[in-house]
Amino acid sequence: QAKLPCVSKTTKTTKSMLVMSMNNRKSRFGFGKFFNNKNNKFNGKNNNNSNGGFNGNGNGNNNDNNGNFAASSGGGDKSSNPLLAFWAGYNSALESKPILIKALTSLVGFALGDALAQKFLGAKDQPFDWARLGRMAAFGFLLHGTTGHFFYGALDRAIPGTEAWKVAAKVAIDQILWAPIFTVMFFSFIGAAEGRSVKEITEKVKRDLWTGVTASWKVWPFVHAINFRFIPTSQRLLYINSIQILYNVFLSMIANKKVEAPAPPPAAAPVKGKKK
User: Fold this and answer.
1) End-to-end CA distance of the chain, in Å?
2) Which of 246, 240, 8 is nearest to 105 (CA)?
């Protein structure tokens, strides 16, 4: 019985020596810190993910150049892409001066439409008509952009939302109410800018109003269905003008179609008098 404590003491000493030997081996091969620090496993403090290196913060050791990986995957620098820089500047200006920017957008759309009409559909022996281009551009700037801003803004306030029936209602109002008003406004402005009389403008409207409205019905219902469903209110005129560049080719041609003067009435046949 007296030898048992000695055996126990020797056993404990042997165990402690073995533990120390194992720790030395672990530290020699670099595993000691991993096995001795259980809280260091996947806690965000290891070398592979230091301070959120792969979560977009850009502080990890494997995320070079202080977050360049995250920045490149997030869309890049706008200043290095001229299109993105222009788009950002356009939206900033649109937010600060909506009427002016929409008017300028319509100016560009109508000018391009008339230029294409003259270039590809006009008579080849005629020189480019800059006055005609100016009239179309002026209409876009003075009337189309400004009236479109107020009309579509009021329409979106009156019928908010993008449900199917609301989109259909907006398209119907646009084509049944606004299309005839727009067409009369367009012919009247172009005629007045050309120096025509009220009678001549009235004859032009009577003659070509139905042609303009029915042409609108063939193009714009589908275009406006996309417009009222997906396009924000602030971007409506930009979307419309991007489509209307081609439609303005038609408007330019019909606006500059010559109105044939009414034929004079036939002269009355002379009445033969009776000889006395």
Assistant:
1) 181
2) 240
